[in-house]
Amino acid sequence: MTVEWMYRALEESRARGFLGPVAIETQVEHASGFSRVWHDVSPQPPDSFLDLGSGGGLPGLVLLEEWRGSGVLLDSMVKRTSFLKETLLWEGAPPLGRVVNGRAEELSRSSEFDGMFSLVTARSFGPPAVTAECAVRFLRLEGVLIVSEPPADDGVNRWDVRGLAKLGIHPEGRLRKGAAYQILRKVKETPSTYPRDVGVPSKNPLF
Predict the structure, then answer these.
(1) Cα(135)–Cα(140) distance, rounded to whole angstroms?
(2) Four-CA torsion 22, 8, 179, 48, nearest 10 degrees
(3) Backbone φ, ψ for residue 201 (5° rounding)
(4) Could you report the per-residue pLDDT of 121-165, keeping only the tens digit for each?
(5) Residues 178-187: pLDDT tens digits?
(6) Which residues lie below 8 Å from residue 111, measured CB to CB, with a gap of 6+?
(7) What was the pLDDT predicted at 153?
(8) Is 3.30.160.340 the CATH classification of the domain at 4-203?
(9) pTM of the prediction?
(10) β-bridge mates for residue 100, sequence order
(11) CB of 96 within 8 A of CB of 71?
């Protein structure tokens, strides 16, 4: 990997307050865990992925660098997406990355994004019900959502099967690749009622 641009971008992202104080190498390792989980699902990189709530660029920038394929980094905060757009113009940055500003509840219904991705990633987007509802319409049928999980393996199931079934998603298990990740697969087409209007998934979660 030609990673100089990526480490520069992540250092600058942290300096601007978009990433936490943890060492950049540690944060990159966590982001790389998403690709290791994906490769347990498929031997080939995804033909397209969307990083939901990309924030300071994790895991999106790392995955763009690793796969050098097509990926969209989505966030609702203009200052963050403006910064991410800037980084993808730097020398060495992957050519197929794209940054989009907006709300997932709205953008996932657009003809440009509805059902267009084989993978959606979420690092710190929100509680399980909110993440699932905001991610689901971006996924094509049989597409996969990979979500970063809390570190403790305490046996608590955060992903309600009945609630997820309303969206057409089924949980396929929690994996450890250093950190913990949840895999969910879209097994049915999403009903037209989901996702609900902006803000409703968090105010009235499905589970």
Answers:
(1) 11
(2) 150
(3) -55, -35
(4) 999 999 999 999 999 999 999 999 999 999 887 756 899 999 999
(5) 999 999 999 9
(6) none
(7) 72
(8) no
(9) 0.96
(10) 74
(11) yes
Output phi, psi for 175, to 5 deg. -120, 155
- The full set of domain ranges for the chain reads 4-203
Handedness of CA 102, 103, 106, 107 (dihedral sign): positive
Contacts for 142 with CB less than 8 Å, ≥ 6 apart: 118, 185, 186, 187
Taking CA 100 as the corner, what is the angle to CA 69 and CA 17, rounded to the nearest 5 degrees?
100
Q: SS in 3 state form for the chain?
A: CCCHHHHHHHHHHHHCCCCCCCCHHHHHHHHHHHHHHHHHHCCCCCCCEEEECCCCCCCHHHHHHHHCCCEEEEECCHHHHHHHHHHCCCCCCCCCEEEEECCHHHHCCCCCCCCCEEEEEECCCCCHHHHHHHHHCCEEEEEEEEEECCCCCCCCCCCCHHHHHCCCEEEEEEEEECEEEEEEEECCCCCCCCCCCCCHHHHCCCC
Yes or no: say if 122 and 148 are a contact pair by the CB < 8 Å rule: yes
Tokens of 59: 């895991």
Q: For residue 192, which amino acid is it?
A: S
Question: CA Rg, the chain, in Å?
Answer: 16
Q: Give CA–CA dist 157/27, Å, rounded.
A: 25
